[in-house]
Amino acid sequence: MTLTPDLNQVAANAWPAPAKLNLMLRITGRRANGYHELQTVFQFIDRCDRLWFDVRADGQVRRVNEVVGVAEADDLTVRAALALQRATGCELGADIRCEKNLPMGGGLGGGSSDAATTLVALNQLWNTGLSENELATLALPLGADVPVFVRGRAAWAEGVGEELMPVDLPESWFLVVIPDCHVSTGAVFAHPQLTRNSNPIKLTDFLRGDITNDCLSVVRSEYPPVEMALHWLEHWGGGRLTGTGACVFAVFDDRELALNAHQQLPASWQGFVAQGLNYSPLLAKRDEHR
Ligand SMILES: C[C@@](CO)(OP(=O)(O)O)[C@H](O)COP(=O)(O)OP(=O)(O)OC[C@H]1O[C@@H](n2ccc(N)nc2=O)[C@H](O)[C@@H]1O
Ligand SMILES: Nc1ncnc2c1ncn2[C@@H]1O[C@H](COP(=O)(O)OP(=O)(O)O)[C@@H](O)[C@H]1O
Predict the structure, then answer these.
(1) Is 80 inside a domain boundary?
(2) Is 245 annotated as a binding residue?
(3) What is the pLDDT of residue 4?
(4) 64, 233, 272, 280: most buried, per Cβ within 10 A?
(5) What residues are paired with 21 via a beta bridge?
(6) Concatenated DSSP letters for 194-236?
(7) Both 234 and 123 in a single domain?
């Protein structure tokens, strides 16, 4: 008999919720409801939150661990589970445990990814049988970035991020720097100086090197830690902002170069090295359960 938990088993039962990077982001207009029309490119990275689900027979949905700064009722995992219950009439519930490895509000999409992983996992574990399209439709009201995580394919995106076209991109290495500040997505989109009228481009323009992020100039002027991180990354070929930030990243051809840059990160700064992924690890996990 062993008294230590079988850590391999714990890991095997975990459902991954990867981060994303926006490799470019253009704002091409504004809708009547105030939301902005975007063009963006999403790629996943191999840095993930991990979630565990225990099915409950009594229909209750509970988050069983503390997530600092997020009340249980507001947690996107709980909201996603309740949305799936409502849509399907499922009478089962779940205990949800979420290991947060991704910084919140950093433009890495951790909350959106947790929501998507919850939808995909519980659709399997509850046997609710929704198709990928149905899950993506359920995902959008939870957040503009949730559908891309449900579909699990790196994508060229338009609209508010819901019109998705899968793309295959180089799976480069990234050094992601986490500036010591939180950027409010709402505040960036409300900023009077934000560029809102970029001309639309095509995927081929992005592939030829148009990697503009229209949020960059507002974010770097309003948030000094982002400006400092971008300044430091100039030494490594220049930094880019993911989404509305605060995280910034530089691209490397191989892991060693990225690790070398990471080692030189100022001691008080946070960051990590990760690889770009065209397929979310969520897909492989889902397929184990089919
Ligand atoms: C712009 C992206 C790119 O990935 O930024 P990140 O949040 O990842 O940094 C996302 O699409 C963000 O989507 P999402 O995360 O769902 O946005 P929310 O926090 O709900 O948006 C907060 C507020 O920003 C404004 N907003 C958001 C998205 C959008 N396309 N136009 C907007 O004008 C709205 O006023 C909204 O109420
Ligand atoms: N499970 C969750 N993980 C992270 N954030 C969550 C979660 N549930 C709700 N949120 C809320 O969503 C916000 C956005 O989180 P996140 O997706 O990590 O950032 P971003 O949209 O900048 O990429 C957080 O500030 C938090 O208030």
Answers:
(1) yes
(2) no
(3) 56
(4) 280
(5) 43
(6) ----PPP--HHHHHTT---BTTHHHHHHH-HHHHHHHHHHGGG
(7) no
- pLDDT band for position 5 (cuts 50, 70, 90): low
Number of compact structural domains in the chain: 2
Known binder of ligand: residue 112? yes
In a domain, 285, yes or no: no
By CB atoms closer than 10 A (0-12, 13-18, 19+), residue 276 is: buried
Residue 2 scores a pLDDT above 70: no
The residue among 146, 167, 188 that closes a domain is 167
Domain C-terminal end among 167, 187, 221: 167
Residues with CB under 6 A from ligand 1: 22, 34-36, 38, 40, 107, 109, 143-145, 160-161, 185-186, 189, 243-244
Residue numbers of the domain that contains 191: 173-277
The answer to whether the peptide bond before residue 190 is cis (omega within 30 degrees of 0) is no
Ligand 2 site residues (CB inside 6 A) read 67, 70, 74-77, 98, 104-112, 114, 185, 243
Q: Are residue 127 and residue 195 in the same domain, yes or no?
A: no
